[in-house]
Design goal:
The protein is an alpha/beta fold. The protein has three domains: 241 residues, Rossmann fold; 62 residues, no CATH class; 112 residues, no CATH class. It contains 19 helices and eleven strands. Bound molecules: S-adenosylmethionine (SAM).
Length: 443
């Protein structure tokens, strides 16, 4: 990274700390950042076995005005944890001031705020971390690879990163608008540049690619000047497609990645989301995951970001099919619960129906069975599958468990098999997660 470009980026975030936040708003709302949900992180990066206690060490690199930092710190507080290490690193003093004021407003103590360049991490002696959040930052470096190279020595051996990079396909309209703006005489001040961009936006015909894809970029009109500047006038930004992310993180860096779009999870990365009744789907589903995800990106066309976890270890997701795991609903899916899903099945008189979820876009034809209904009734966010299945067997007035076999093991396997499509559907949007019994019970 040249000093010049770094200075430009730094100057932008000093003038327009991003995202714009008013500390007073901490009194009335908590902003949840998708990849920083500790339950989601635990499920995908620590096999649902991570205990979030005082030994947990977090680095938020390029933490900006503090969304991720505050959300993580707040969750630790809700868990009653005191003393976990949370370091918030950013180039911009103005952004750090806002993040610090937000923490103060909440009465959260102990966050270490560090003003600095993440490229200097290898010489900053901050130690290693279990979790590094680097969201919306690497794509602003002149050499994003240098940024990742600087972060990795700070990542512990079984650590996890949360990364968010701009998505190439979904942002096509943005880059075309940026190109148009580069043809116009550049105004001197931030305010004049924002004003010029707004005037241009107002003139774009409906045929323009940004105008056509306006719904993909709500921040353009609703996010204020800092968001508009970030989208259209940033001095430095790059975007990536799925294949490029695999080449970079997996092939070159030997990391393992798990893509989970904000509020939608894996759904937009699954070709079946759109091609479910296409005869070719079986052949497509046999292809490597990476190819399927690239294909889904092309089909959907709306991935403006790629949000993903990156781990050093393989197979870090909690396993479905282990009796000692507790199924539970993601906190933001409230009021969804096991009994509420059972009630949905009852509402359809136990006939096949289209399971829909507006926020994620899930639409899947499901076939309820008596066992599935009973399992949902047993999910209370604290029982293990073993305890749920015991309950199902006890309540089994319909006798389906007896038809599944005589041995408890055999019955358990059948219950898992019956529930599997439901777990796959709800887990594909991250609403139903797993943690191992006695590991990190949310308050
Ligand atoms: C788009 S904002 C994202 C902020 C935050 N991660 C979030 O998602 O809300 C990018 C942030 O990265 C910071 N940043 C950019 N380059 C950096 C670098 N080399 N070292 C540290 N921070 C950097 C900027 O100052 C800015 O606050």
């Amino acid at each position: 990274m040249t000093a010049d470009i770094s200075a430009k980026v730094a100057a932008q975030y000093e003038a327009l700390p991003y995202p714009p936040r008013d500390p007073v708003d901490e009194d009335s709302r908590l902003i949840g950042t998708w990849l920083d949900d500790l339950d989601l992180l635990n499920h995908h990066c620590f096999r649902g076995e991570r205990v979030f206690d005082a030994s947990f060490r977090v680095l938020v690199a390029g933490g900006g005005t503090g969304d991720g930092t505050i959300f993580i710190a707040q969750q630790m507080r809700e868990r009653g944890v005191v003393g976990a290490r949370i370091v918030h690193l950013d180039l911009s003093a103005a952004a750090i001031d806002i993040a610090r004021a937000r923490a103060n407003r909440r009465g959260i103590e102990g966050i270490e705020f560090v003003q600095g360049n993440l490229l200097d991490l290898p010489t900053m002696n901050l130690g290693q971390f279990d979790f590094i959040n680097c969201v919306g930052v690497l794509h602003h470096l002149s050499d994003p690879e240098l940024g990742l190279a600087a972060l990795l020595p700070s990542l512990g051996p079984d650590g996890a990163m949360a990364v968010l990079l701009y998505g190439k396909l979904g942002r096509i309209g943005i880059y075309q608008a940026q190109a148009i703006l580069r043809h116009l005489p550049p105004p001197a001040s931030y305010a004049e540049r924002v004003d010029q961009a707004k005037r241009l936006l107002a003139k774009l015909p409906r045929t323009n690619w940004l105008a056509r894809s306006a719904e993909l970029h709500p921040d353009l009109h609703q996010g204020g000047d800092a968001a508009l500047y970030d989208l259209l006038l940033h001095s430095q930004d790059r975007a990536f497609d799925v294949e490029e992310i695999y080449r970079w993180f997996v092939d070159d860096r030997k990391l393992h990645i798990y893509l989970s779009d904000v509020h939608r999870g894996r759904l937009p990365y699954l070709p079946a989301t759109w091609l479910h009744d296409l005869p070719e789907l079986a052949a497509i589903s046999a292809k490597p995951e990476r190819e399927q995800e690239s294909l889904a990106e092309l089909i959907g066309g709306d991935l403006v970001l790629h949000a993903f976890f990156a781990t050093r270890l393989a197979d870090t997701s909690a396993p479905f099919g282990d009796l000692d795991y507790v199924p539970f609903f993601l906190r933001e899916s409230y009021p969804a619960s096991g009994p509420s899903l059972a009630a949905v099945i009852d509402g359809h008189q136990s006939k096949p129906f289209l399971l829909t979820h507006t926020q994620s876009g899930l639409r899947r034809e499901m076939k309820p069975t008596p066992a599935v209904r009973e399992i949902f009734l047993g999910i209370d966010d604290s029982r293990t599958w073993r305890e749920i299945f015991d309950l199902v067997r006890q309540r089994d007035g319909l006798g389906f468990a007896a038809r599944f076999g005589t041995e408890p093991d055999e019955i358990d396997q059948r219950l898992f098999a019956e529930f599997s499509p439901w777990y796959q559907a709800l887990n594909s949007i991250e609403r139903l997660l797993l943690r191992r019994k006695n590991f990190d019970k949310p308050v």
